[in-house]
Design brief:
The protein is mainly alpha-helical. It is 82% helix and 0% strand.
Length: 176
Amino acid sequence: MTIPNLISIIRLAMVPFIVWTLLDGQTVLAFILFVVVGISDGVDGFIARRFNQQSELGAYLDPLADKTLLVTMFVALGYLEAIPLWLVVIVLTRDVLILAGVMVAFVLGDPIEIKPLFVSKANTAVQIVLVALALSMPAFNLELGVIHLVVVWTCAILTVASAFAYFVAWTRHVAG
């Protein structure tokens, strides 16, 4: 077990605690835990590259931890109405469609290698910013109306663009 893999496992284990603190009204603690988990994502990647501790397990654990955190936070923040429910639906639908596409390609005997596209990386970055904003507003009594709205719509646009880009890549892959 490498150190980066252990960090990824800890990140996965932290997700329920972050959600619990958020739903329990401990918004400052939820924000702090979210930031710590976010920083640990960068740390495990740095350690993996710098000390040649990249592994096949880590290639699955790291994105699994990231996706678990973001999806769970979107659902929880949607439930609390800190993120619009329509955006939660768009984000979840994109992720389900990507997973379904990978599974269909696998079943067809033509597994697809998942490579993050630039638009997907930008989308993830904006999702992280949106979660951080949505957590920080109640935690620190911030009123970020227009900024929050701009980030919400940017997230929506990038999520749809990312879904479309993956659909195009998937269609090309399946078509051969």
